Amino acid sequence: MTGSYIARIRGALPTLHPSERRLADTILSFPGEIASYSATELAQLANVSNATVTRFVRRLGYENFDQARQAARANQQTGAAVFRVSASGQGPDAALMAQITQGRQNVENSFAAISLAEIDDLADAILHADRVWIIGFRTARAFAAYLGAQIGQTIPNVTELPIAGQTLAESLTSIRTGDVVIVFALRRTVRQLPAVCRELRNTSARAALISDVLPQTGRDVPPIETELSPKWRLRVQTAAPGPLFNHAAVLTLCHILATRVLERSGSAGRKRLLAIEALHDSMDEI
């Protein structure tokens, strides 16, 4: 049997014995829990025997429980939110403080490895680029839109991808050597992102890669740096005590980058801001 361990469980459901089915239902209720439990703890949670757990993981195609737990841990680190849902009885106040603390730690740990010199170098490149392209899929789409809107107050030549109603190919063919491309690669990415990065590398445009890492290993998620060969490599942490990744460091990076673009734009940036405000007044928009 192949596939993720959840897919294996679903595929085996029709053939499971009652005790194994009870174990499967327990795991499917909280798919990520198997990563933190021992075989004995999982057996107690599902009210089955240790022997049932052993038979169950072998029926799924794993040699032993540790192999199944490693597969679950991999899904927990890089998979959907459902793999990170916990049966923890932590109270709401404690849960709130855990989220706030983790967000602060993500920001501090991320910027311990990101220097202002790196950010300023990218900001200067953005100011002198023929066009700035910002690419983000799924959750990263929101950060691409935010960064594009903030930078767009300072410079006029900002395009966010993908564009509604257009294929990626139609947009990628417009990227030139004098452009700057900012790629967000945040968990969980779409399958075509490595292919997009390969095409971006062929354009000779200068690229920045904003990605998160696995806190336990420091490995990139996903490993696309070799596909893109970015000039700027900005890595943020998105660890979270709950099922959803904490993106406080991502938003902070976007804010600082956009701020430095504005601050380093000098009189040209201020002139554009004044022109925007004049139109706001004349059109009574704000």
UniProtKB/TrEMBL annotation:
Signal peptide interval: none
Please give one Pfam family short name.
HTH_6
Domain HTH rpiR-type positions: 3-79
Recorded hits in InterPro entries, A to Z, give:
Homeodomain-like_sf, HTH_RpiR, RpiR-like, SIS_dom, SIS_dom_sf, WH-like_DNA-bd_sf
SUPFAM superfamilies found in the cross-reference section? Homeodomain-like (SSF46689), SIS domain (SSF53697)
Q: Which PANTHER family does the entry link to? A: GLUCOKINASE, RPIR-FAMILY TRANSCRIPTIONAL REGULATOR
Q: What is this protein called?
A: MurR/RpiR family transcriptional regulator
Q: Per the UniProt entry, what species is this protein from, by scientific name?
A: Roseinatronobacter domitianus
